[in-house]
Amino acid sequence: MQTYQDYRTAFTLDFSETAFDKLMQKRIYRVLLICSHYDAFMLEEDGRIDEQIFNEYVSLNLRYPPSFIQVHSAREALNAVKEEEVDLIISMLNVGDIDTFELAKQLKRRLPDTPLVILTHFSREVSVRLEKEDLTGIDYIFSWLGNADLLLAIIKLIEDKMNADHDILEVGVQSIIVVEDSVRYYSTMLPIIYKTIVRQARSFMKEALNEHRRVLRMRGRPKILLAQTYEEAQELYNKYKPNILGIISDVSFKVNQKRDHDAKLGIELCKTIRQDDPNMPFLLQSSTNDNKPFVDELGVGFIDKYSQTYNYKLRDYIISNFGFGDFVFYDPDTKKELFKAQDLKSLQKLIHTVPDNSLYFHTSRDHISKWLNARALFSIGQLFKPISISDFNSLDKVREFLYQAISAYRTSKSRGIIAKFDKNNFDDYKFFSRIGDGSIGGKARGLAFVNSLIKSNQIYEKYENVIVIIPRTVVISTDFYDEFLDTNDLFRIGMSDNYSDEQTLQHFIDAKLPDSLIEDLEALVKVMKQPIAVRSSSKLEDSHYQPFA
Question: Staple 246 to which of 76, 195, 322, 433, CB 3.0 to 4.6 Å?
Fold first, then answer.
């Protein structure tokens, strides 16, 4: 039985609700695609661009796929921007009647705030030409790789840039900085990173308590920020460094818009950042293994760009080092895996089990905070981030703080929310859960309303020696009642004049509950350790709208 002191401890910390609905407010809905008839055919060889992008969005559980306006000449493009609202312009390198770079300047004069991207097939000749051209008016150049993944990455990269200041600086959304000036390589790399990030985001959606909040939490996925020069990389790091999960950088790239292959600026950038934050994950990439000794000296990750398994190595490094996947407690001496936490609930259980040396290893390197932030658990992740082991007298105090903080967060998160019941993930931190998707009835709505009032008015511990809460509640929604009637043919029996009241009652008593409901109730009984009060409607209801209870 929980005592008053147990409740008081759990309610000591209160966590503000992350405003996921305020994230990603700026989106790309309409894309103007400028390409020749031949390029249009090549782009749509496997189906319409709209359909490819739509299918890509659906496969990744993303919403708001953009629509495309296709034009085949510069003149059509200039007319289109007069008549249509356009959020992004993508042009193939050769559109025929006007030079692409001149067209870009004209479009930018008309739509100065609309991002403009050039798509080109990669070749040595194209690279030489780009080095000589005036790229004024062009935001990005990408190498077309033949599938819709790149278009998805372009759209998401620009949306991330548009929303970065608000979402990262004001809400705490995390970011990953990519430093690369090669069009060919960042065109290959970004689609891999985005697919990895979005798929990981789908796994942490399970932390949300209902479907609506799961969808909103997708907006909290980490943002990808692309820097093409040393100066841009430093600027991004200095601006967003409290909320950076990790950095992926080439060894050689531009400084002051000029490339110096001998400078090894990626290594210099790594040293500078590691001096500021020794625990920052850093992945260096190079097209030659000659740089491997420098990387080993720094103790950071390394990938050969020409590796046949490049895609898998990049994905695995991100998952293992940027806080994604399960949280794995290691023995720091043997590197052996000790325990694994799939979610916040299992992490809390392990806090008192993990050996001292493993707990010290992970907490002193900011691993727990990074893992929480990567999963969009910003309020508790930001609480842990500035805390140092030296702030506590002993590791036992660290354990107690971590455990109680997670407990307080889970308690706070459940207040005022009608959670979706999940038999595989139900625990007594959920104040109010519903089984099913139908209506929950008058008494349940009344309790849910009181629960929301307690949260919105902050009265759970407003009065000394008093905790104001509702009983922990699980509601069976009306769709199970409908299913119960249908599968047992009870509606026909109940409405028939051929059965006496006693016979009708016996049919209802003999009827079987839906199997899924039985499984949920069994899971509920296993978790609940206190007496359970079962409430339902009765013949004493004094009003159709005001339940007698």
Answer: 322
| Nearest alpha-carbon partner for 366 in 277, 248, 302 | 277
| pTM for this model (two decimals) | 0.80
User: For residue 341, what is the enclosing H or E element?
Assistant: strand 337-341
Quote the tokens at residue 371. 């893992």
What is the full per-residue pLDDT of the chain (549 aa) written as tens digits?
A: 333 344 344 445 556 677 788 888 898 999 998 887 777 776 665 546 667 677 667 655 667 788 888 888 888 888 888 888 899 999 887 766 677 888 888 888 899 999 999 888 776 666 666 677 777 778 999 988 766 788 889 999 999 999 999 999 998 899 999 999 888 899 999 999 998 998 888 777 666 666 667 777 788 899 999 999 899 999 999 999 989 999 999 988 766 555 555 568 889 999 999 999 988 999 999 887 777 777 878 889 999 988 889 999 999 999 999 988 889 999 999 989 999 998 888 999 999 999 999 999 999 888 999 999 888 888 888 888 877 888 888 899 999 999 999 988 888 877 778 888 888 877 778 888 889 888 887 788 888 888 888 888 888 778 888 888 888 889 998 889 889 999 999 888 888 888 898 999 899 899 999 999 999 999 888 888 888 888 776 555 555 565 554
Q: Within 10 A of 272 (CB to CB), how many other CB atoms are there?
A: 13
Compute φ and ψ for 224, nearest 5 degrees.
Answer: -105, 125
Collect contacts of 271-277 with beta carbons under 8 A, ≥24 apart: 271/298, 272/234, 273/237, 273/247, 274/298, 274/300, 276/241, 277/241
From residue 385, how far is each of 186, 298, 377 by CA, in Å?
31, 23, 12
